[in-house]
Amino acid sequence: MPIPPSPAELIDHLVRTRIAGNVATPRENNLDHYRRLAQGDRHYWFGLEFGDRWTDEQDVLAVMAERCGVSDDLEHRTGQDTIDPRLTVAGLERMAAFLRKAAEGRQRVLFATGHPGGLLDVHRATAAALRAAGCEIVSIPSGLRADEGSVYQVADVAVFERGATLWHTHSPAPMAAILDGLRRAGRPLPDLVVADHGWAGCAAQQGLDAVGFADCNDPALFLAEAEGTLQVAVPLDDHVADPRFYEPMTAYLLGTAGLAG
Questions:
Q1: 3, 24, 32, 33: which sits with the fewest CB atoms below 10 Å from its CB?
Q2: What are 180-183's contacts with CB under 8 Å, separation 24+?
Q3: Which residues contact 85 (CB under 8 A, 6 or more apart)?
Q4: What is the rounded distance in angstroms from the CA atom of residue 75 to the CA atom of residue 98?
C-alpha cells in the first residue's frame, strides 16, 4: 500500500486514471439507467425500496449531479459524462469516519463486492486494516446460494461465484442470503457493512449501517444516501483498466481513518 497522498495528489491521480473526471461510462448509459430506475425497474434499485418517490428521471439526474458530479444539463444526452473527483475525495472522507468509528468500537464489519474485477482489493485491504485494529471481520456461513450461484468469501470479502468464475453482479440476493444465513445460525448481524452495488443496497434496506462505492450509472446508492438509508456513497468508476489504480485511493481512505501503517 503506498503512502497516503494529499487530497490534491489524489484528485490528480483520480483524474489521470479516469477513476473520476472524464470517466469511461457514456452519458447515454447514465441517462438510460436513471430512466429505468425512475420507471420502477428493480434491477436498478439494488435491493432498495423507493416506492413512488423517484418516478421523474430529472429528479434522479439532479441528485446525481449533486452527489456524483455528472452534468446537470438536461440537453446533454450523449457523449462524455463526468464524476467530480472532489466529491470522490469527500465521499472517501465520510466513509473513513465510519471506519474510524468501527476501529474504535472493535465493531463487527462485513465486506462484500459485486465488482470483484475492480474493487476486490480495495475491500480486502480495508478489511485487513480493520482486522489489525481489532475489529471482527464477519465470516459468512458456508454453503450459501443465490441467483443460481454460490456466495462465499475471498480474502475476507464476500463475492458471488457461478461456473467457477467470480461474477459482476448488481443483485441484492447474495447479501440477503448472507444476512438470512447469519440469522439462521443465531449469529449477530454486522455493525457495519462496506460494500457496493446490491450488496450495499440490501444491507442498508435491512436497517444496517452501510457504506459503499458507486459508479455514475448506478443511481440507487446515491438516492439512498440522499434519503438517509445508506450512510455513504462514494462516486467513482468501479472498473478502470488496472485495479492497481485504486491503491492510492485506498491508502487515502485508510490514512484518513487512522488505519494506515
A1: 3
A2: 181/140, 181/141, 181/144, 182/138, 182/140, 182/141
A3: 10, 11, 14, 15, 19, 20, 21, 69
A4: 38
- Which string of DSSP letters, residue by residue, matches the chain? -PPPPPHHHHHHHHHHHTSSEE-SS-HHHHHHHHHHHHTT-GGGTTT---TTTT--HHHHHHHHHHHT-----TT--SS--EE-HHHHHHHHHHHHHHHHHHHHTT-EEEEE-S-HHHHHHHHHHHHHHHHHTTPEEPPPPTTEEETTEEEEEETTEEEEEETTEE-----SHHHHHHHHHHHHTTPPPPSEEEEEHHHHHHHHHTT--EEEEE-TT-HHHHHHHHHTSSSEEEE--SS-S-GGGGHHHHHHHHHHTT---
Measured between alpha carbons, how far is 89 from 65 in angstroms, rounded to an integer?
Answer: 16
Task: Find residue 145's DSSP bridge partners.
Answer: 150
Instruction: Say if CB 85 and CB 15 are below 8 A apart.
Output: yes
CA nearest 217: which of 22, 25, 14, 24? 25
- Residue identified by cell 420502477 is 40
Q: Taking the CA atoms of the chain, what radius of gyration do you get in angstroms?
A: 17
The predicted structure's pLDDT at residue 55: 98
Tens digit of each residue's pLDDT (9 = 90 or more) over 85-105: 999 999 999 999 999 999 999
Q: What is the reported pTM? A: 0.96
Spatial distance between the Cα atoms of 72 and 251, rounded to a whole number of angstroms: 31
Summarised one tens digit per residue, pLDDT across range 181-206 is 999 999 999 999 999 999 999 999 99
